[in-house]
Every structure is written in structure tokens, then in C-alpha cells.
Design goal:
The chain is built from 1 helix and 7 strands, in the order αβββββββ. By secondary structure, the protein is mainly beta.
């Protein structure tokens, strides 16, 4: 028993003298939060239809998109500045120039409206027929 007490005393002494003086553990805490918001949706308000166009003339057409999501949140919208329209009978596509008005956030109701205007010039020798293409709008939260 005496040997055990000596061994315990030596272990305690080594531990006490081996640790630096004033070495106390410090701690800090932080708050962790997460805010869940609605997903974004985007829907076209209609197709962009130029109708019948005579060779050698210019025309415009309008359409747009409606975006819904979490009210007041900032968003980024990406839309190409041109669209290529093709026709199986023509080797030359028609190019529609695109002009947009892009909001940078959703309103107090969680909505945003995107205006899209297309500009089309048809050359004098353009092959007659129906030309088609697509315009894609992308939206994401900032």
C-alpha cells in the first residue's frame, strides 16, 4: 500500500509540475441559424410571335416572364441578347435581337416581371417559310 501511495504522489507531482502555470482552457460560442425560403419559379407570359413578315422589312414583338419566390429577395436573371431562328428549307437563319428590362429583386409580394422585346430584320432574299427558335431565361437568388 505504501508503494501505491508513493506512486500516486509521484504521478500527481509530475502532472502538476509538467503543465504550464495559468494554462486554462478558453471557449467561445457562436449562434448558428438557417433561414428557409421559397424556391424560385419562372413562367413565360406568352410566346414571342412576329406573325407574317414581308421579305426586306423590320418588325418587333413583345413578351415576358413572371418570376415568383421569397418576397424582397435579390435575384439574378440571365437572358441571351439574341435568338437564332431556323427553317429546314433555308441555310440562312434569322437573328432576333433581344432587349430586356431585368429587375434585380422580388417585390413585397414575392413577384418580378421581365419585359422582353424582340427586333427582327428580314433580308430581301430570305427563304420564305416559318422560322422557329427558343429564348431561355434563367433566374437565381443572389
Amino acid at each position: 500500500m505504501k508503494k501505491l501511495l508513493i506512486l500516486l504522489s509521484l504521478t500527481t507531482a509530475i502532472t502538476a509540475f509538467g503543465a504550464p502555470h495559468g494554462n486554462t482552457e478558453k471557449a467561445a460560442t457562436m449562434n448558428v441559424t438557417a433561414t428557409v425560403i421559397k424556391p424560385l419559379t419562372i413562367v413565360k407570359t406568352g410566346d414571342m410571335d412576329f406573325g407574317n413578315i414581308i421579305q426586306g422589312t423590320n418588325t418587333t414583338a413583345d413578351s415576358g416572364y413572371t418570376i415568383t419566390g421569397e418576397k424582397g429577395q435579390p435575384i439574378i436573371i440571365t437572358i441571351d441578347d439574341s435568338v437564332s431562328l431556323s427553317n429546314a428549307m433555308s441555310k440562312t437563319p434569322l437573328v432576333v435581337g433581344i432587349k430586356t428590362q431585368l429587375p434585380n429583386s422580388l417585390d413585397k409580394d414575392g413577384n418580378a416581371h421581365v419585359s422582353v422585346q424582340g427586333f427582327l430584320t428580314v433580308p430581301n432574299n430570305q427563304t420564305v417559310g416559318t422560322y422557329t427558335g427558343t429564348l431561355t431565361a434563367r433566374v437565381q437568388y443572389q
